[in-house]
Design goal:
Blueprint lengths: L1 H14 L8 H14 L1 H28 L5 H5 L3 H5 L3 H22 L1 H8 L4 H34 L13 H26 L2 H21 L2 H7 L4 H6 L13 H25 L3
């Protein structure tokens, strides 16, 4: 009887569907579904695009209308490429906030437990979130920077104070905006995973990007000149400056320092994700 039962059950067992293997590609696809189906994602990225393009056009329009009455020193220091891209300053806030929410939103709802149960090794979830958000941010913000630059230069052209992509360093500045905002997004994801609290994560991102540079300026110049260039936002924004100013890092050196901050935060997030309970 036992032999017959075992023999009969064998075909059924052989024909039973195997459980799908968890791969990085499948985790990435699941994170893509989460990202594109959340309304907050659409509205936050839209806010970043509006800030990047809208404020760039606003600054260019105001500068063109006031150009004839501007003092000589302001004309001498005028940078047409940076003027059309000044919206990145507000766009970075939206990008940083959404990066934090990529992680903390799941901790707030408890969905992170389901995600980590489906992916017991845990780290593929973090890598998928970081890689996906970095790719989306880079594509959208690079496109937004290009639109802001071209439209902004069109507003400056009647006064003959614009520039073009063929001028030295301009391509670096335009593409640098997309790269800078991409790393801001990665820092947001990493900080969200480190702190696991939305308010705390957003406050930390704002503190790193906005508050630390202000505090550094309050230090004696002998200190601030050595500390300021290595702060996260100051280092990253060296890539967006057409002309290197005194006491600042070279463009790609500063961006490399900024990337090191993001990588260090991601490494810390990976260690804690493996060690802490969900």
């Amino acid at each position: 009887m036992s032999t017959l039962t075992a023999t009969t059950a064998t075909p059924a067992a052989a024909g039973a569907p195997r459980r799908s293997e968890v791969t990085q590609a499948r985790v990435l696809h699941s994170e893509w579904i989460k990202l594109r189906t959340l309304r907050s994602t659409f509205y936050t990225l839209l806010a970043a695009m509006v800030a990047l393009i809208g404020f760039g056009l606003l600054f260019c329009a105001v500068t063109a209308s006031r150009w004839d009455s501007l003092p000589a020193h302001e004309r001498a220091n005028f940078d047409p490429s940076l003027t059309s891209l000044r919206g990145f300053f507000l766009a970075q806030l939206a990008i940083g906030v959404l990066g934090v929410l990529m992680i903390t939103g799941e901790y707030a709802t408890g969905m992170i437990r389901a995600s980590l149960s489906a992916v017991p090794r845990r780290l593929p979830v973090l890598w998928a979130k970081a890689a996906l958000y970095a790719a989306v941010t880079w594509v959208l913000m690079t496109a937004g920077a290009l639109i802001a630059f071209l439209c902004g230069q069109a507003l400056l052209a009647p006064k003959h104070i614009g520039t073009s992509l063929s001028d030295p360093g301009v391509v670096r500045v335009v593409l640098g905006v997309g790269l800078y905002l991409t790393v801001v997004g990665l820092m947001g994801v990493a900080i969200g995973a480190l702190i696991r609290n939305t308010a705390g994560g957003i406050a930390t991102v704002f503190g790193l990007l906005l508050v630390l540079p202000v505090l550094a300026e309050a230090l004696p110049s002998s200190w601030s000149n050595h500390i300021g260039p290595y702060l996260p936002s100051n280092a990253g924004q060296a890539l967006i400056s057409l002309h290197r100013e005194a006491h600042t890092l070279a463009p790609w050196t500063g961006f490399a320092v900024f990337c090191l901050y993001a990588l260090a935060a991601l490494a810390g997030a990976a260690v804690l994700l493996k060690r802490r309970d969900a």
